[in-house]
Design brief:
This protein has a domain at about 35-90: Up-down Bundle (F1FO ATP Synthase), CATH 1.20.20. Helix content is about 90%, strand content about 0%. It has helices at about 1-10, 15-55, 60-90. Helix 2 runs antiparallel to helix 3. The chain is elongated, with a radius of gyration of 22 Å.
């Protein structure tokens, strides 16, 4: 069985191995920030709803701050996607 594993592994070229690792890195570069941003934006929205529940008269100000915060947190997901594209198409 050990010899079969070695024979299987010797059939992998360096280019194919590097391409596979690049694909895994691109998936992680896009997936991890995307997941973290989704959690963060959900937390921002939940806190904004709580704040509006406590002070309904400040709804407009809370909404403005929430939208700005979500836009800023979205940039990390966009950077992750950009890095994934660079890994796929440039590397």
């Amino acid at each position: 069985m050990y010899l079969q594993m070695i024979n299987l592994l010797t059939g992998i070229t360096d280019l194919g191995f590097a391409s596979g690792l690049t694909s895994i890195a691109a998936a992680l570069a896009a997936g991890i920030p995307g997941f973290a941003v989704a959690l963060g934006q959900g937390n921002i929205a939940a806190k904004a709803v709580e704040a509006v529940g406590r002070q309904p008269e400040a709804k407009n100000e809370i909404q403005q701050v929430m939208i700005i915060g979500q836009g800023i947190s979205e940039t990390s997901a966009i950077y992750g996607l950009l890095i994934a594209f660079i890994l796929i198409f440039v590397a």
